[in-house]
Amino acid sequence: MNLLKRLGCRRAAVLGLLAATVLVTPGTATGAPDAVQASTLGAQAAQSGRYFGTAVAAGRLGDGTYTGILDREFTSVTPENEMKWDATEPSRGSFTFGRADQIAQRAQARGQRLRGHTLVWHSQLPGWVGSIRDANTLRGVMNNHITTVMNRYKGRIHSWDVVNEAFADGGSGQMRSSVFRDVLGTGFVEQAFRTARSADPAAKLCYNDYNIENWSDAKTQGVYRMVRDFKAHGVPIDCVGLQAHFGAGGPPGSFQTTLSSFAALGVDVQITELDIAQAPTTAYANTVRACMNVARCTGITVWGIRDSDSWRSGENPLLFDRNGTKKPAYHATLTAMGGTPALVAALSSPPPALAAARPAQAADPTTMTNGFYVDPDSSAKRWVAANPGDGRASAINASVANTPTARWFGSWSGSIGTATGAYTGAADARDKLPLLVAYNIYNRDYCGGHSAGGASSPSAYANWIAQFAGGIGGHPAVVVLEPDSLGDYGCMSQAQIDEREGMLTGALAEFNRRAPNTWVYLDAGNPAWADAATMARRLHEAGVRQAHGFSLNVSNYLTTAENTAYGDAVNRELAARYGYTKPFVVDTSRNGNGSNGQWCNPAGRRIGTPTRLGGGAEMLLWIKVPGESDGNCGVGGGSTAGQFLPEVAYKMIHGY
């Protein structure tokens, strides 16, 4: 058990947002000074030989608040869009550098370093480049673009993102389709780096990408293999940029491993485009500490200054709010580098905005615990224990029974407060994070009847959910709230819809009041239920603003990619309509082969990515136990809902 983390998160709720910053220990970071050194980001980073930079937009340089923060806090500048291909060579051979020059000259006049971003990228590419189909022509165009742009800023740029985002998302570990790869083959990356070295031998040459922060991801491994091969064959590569666009959960647990593994190849690593949804203090501190703990992590760049400047403005992901005021994440970041945010007075007298913060937002249960809890009494565990000689038992034990999976609570759970208290207490004693599902809303399935049941009345439900939350109390937990509740409006009257939304809003209020260390995700069904705009409206009307986030794909089979695209679309609608976004989680327990259009025990399905932080959503979670029946249907004919079917589980492990 990490006692420091636990004590920090168990402080009074009004101090929760500040506690995480105070508990960062500057002396533990490699390269970080043991004593307080500075009170600004750039000055403190410089104490360990690093830079702390930001993306800059030329169009905002007339904003005095913007430039005031820029000049005070940052020692490195990255043009946000002004050095990209569509800005610098909109037509073949016709180069325009006005806005890029404006940023470069201003940075140079103030002694700020300059990062070049970016030379070769499949996006923000003029149509004339994308239409080239002759390899020799494209190679000449690419080399000329690299040489011309680099010569313009030769001697002024310390690091160039030579190639940006060349690798595909997903599990292939291969390069994405683009005009460069499709016409020139994968060798275009090597060609770009060799041309760049010739153009400016003094600049550090970087490969830059997103979603390469988790060490085990196929995309990360693909980039790692490329860099390793480059180093082995003398291709001039000096650094790897990890963009670090994180959800509210922050960096994956393996982030420091990823940094150190790339560094071990003999390249620098840089955090190049950092922003974190909702800017949690712990997430920022963990990101910075990971860099400080790796000697070859040479600097950090945040992707914008104020929340209003961010490309993710609806998620408020930066260190300064829309007025340019330092946020708690700023202080956490400075403290993680060994600086002084001067928070002693703030702890004894928190500002009004923090004092009024809801308890449920004041703690991050993922940082209060060390991994997820494996339910010792799951249906899979019980079956394995009862059937040790069965030839399927070993595979089911390894692949299902020992994967952290949610426990569902409903009318069958007896005294609900006692049940949730015992379960979360047992997890807490082992320093693990439990996953729970609350599944007891009144008139649960108006339309289908497949999962009918629930509390006997709205008032009975209100009492039940209050006890549910009260049983959890101060234990860290993750709760998925009422799967299916927002999906079956088609046969409900407006009065019934209003009643249901009122129950959900009330439930969220109870969790905020009674379970301050719990993240609650209001279920939003799956992409096949409702379009993103409709689901955003339903979530909002059901009170999702009070929740930590929303959940997707519970007990369903749609792929993670389909769900993350849908979750992002829902967030765009939330941002556009209501001015906020929310993190989301995806149930991946049975989506390894995707959906065949059937929902009830379909054949040929496969288990998906085991429970983890990150992975395209805030978390990928096993909410349904693979092998538990959906009912008397499909390959589960003759079974009842929730019954564990070992043959179904075994086939899901192998995907047939």
TrEMBL record:
Signal sequence coordinates: 1-31
Chemical reaction(s) catalysed: Endohydrolysis of (1->4)-beta-D-xylosidic linkages in xylans
Stated name of the protein: Glucanase
Gene3D superfamilies the record matches: 1, 4-beta cellobiohydrolase, Glycosidases
Highest classification ranks of the organism: Bacteria, Bacillati, Actinomycetota, Actinomycetes, Kitasatosporales
Catalytic residues (positions): 273, 484
Keywords assigned by UniProt, alphabetized: Carbohydrate metabolism, Cellulose degradation, Glycosidase, Hydrolase, Polysaccharide degradation, Signal, Xylan degradation
Residue ranges annotated for the GH10 domain, each copy included: 35-336
